[in-house]
Amino acid sequence: MLGPMLRVLVIALVLLVAAMFLLPRGRDARPPLPAPSVPTQAATVLPDRLPLPEFALTDDSGQRFTTEDLRGGYRLVFFGFTHCPDICPLTLQVLARAVDEIEAREPSAKPEVVFVSVDPRRDTPERIRAYVRNFDPEFVGVTGPDEALAPLVRALGVTVHKTEVDGEHYNVVHNGTVYVIGPDAGLAAIFSGTSHDAETIASDYLLIRGASTPAP
After folding, report:
1. CB atoms closer than 10 angstroms to residue 37
2. Which of 102, 124, 139, 140 could pair with 132 as two cysteines, CB 3.0-4.6 Å apart?
3. Which range (32-41, 102-111, 129-138, 167-176) has the least confidence?
4. How far is the C-alpha of 74 from the C-alpha of 181, rounded, in Å?
5. Could you give the C-alpha distances from 103 to 110, 149, 191, in angstroms and in order?
6. Which pLDDT does position 131 carry in this prediction?
């Protein structure tokens, strides 16, 4: 039989040993971070959808285009201008190939591509229509006065800077981000300007769409 004092010492020793195993032991003892819910290759997926503000633009057929026109399906939205020498044509070519890839893998998941011109001074609906149809006959182009574009540009953090060159000749500096808009007219994910690869966009888009709530 253990004496009362010895029994207390044994219990204390057992508790001390248990505590040594339970206490964190440096960096390796930290709990692992949860894995991303959507394991995309290039897209940055928002944990919560960002609702888009109300806006009113004009599409390439001269019809009114508002926030409501983004509801009910998935869109890949890209901002640019028709006089763009490099980023815009390259990105639209990639998006055309990505849409073909998506349609080949999952026809019912095909998204609509919306090109938003940030150069309303030169980009009329007619010019935009001819421009986007060069890449895909189903692409939609929209634009509007700077004040009409402002709510959408601000909400998505689009960079737009116009640099005068010579009178009517000027350049528009803008970011090359592609925005994934969900059926609730909310921003679901973004592809930065350095991640534009057709197969990667197609794969990531299908993952994002599969992890999202279906359109009502």
Report:
1. 9
2. 139
3. 32-41
4. 6
5. 5, 30, 19
6. 98
Other Cβ atoms within 10 Å of 63 Cβ, number: 11
Residue where the block lists tokens 């990531």: 204
pLDDT in tens, 140-183: 999 999 999 999 999 999 988 888 766 667 888 888 999 999 99
User: Taking each helix axis from N to C terminus, what angle separates 198-211 and 87-105, rounded to the nearest 10 degrees?
Assistant: 60
Give the closest residue to 191 by CA, choosing from 95, 81, 99, 116: 95
Please tell me the distance from the alpha carbon of residue 122 to that of residue 110, in angstroms, as a whole number. Answer: 31
pLDDT at 126: 97
CA pair distance 212, 201, nearest whole angstrom: 16
Which residue, 211, 198, 206, is CA-closest to 105? Answer: 206
Q: Per residue in 74-88, pLDDT tens?
A: 999 999 999 998 999
Q: Which domains does the chain have, with CATH numbers?
A: 44-211 (3.40.30.10)
**Cα angle vertex 185, ends 110, 87, to 5°?**
65
Say how many C-beta atoms besides its own lie within 10 A of residue 17's C-beta.
10
Strand partners, 173: 161
pTM: 0.79
Q: Which two tokens stand for residue 175?
A: 């970011």
Parallel/antiparallel/unpaired status of strands 169-174 and 160-166: antiparallel
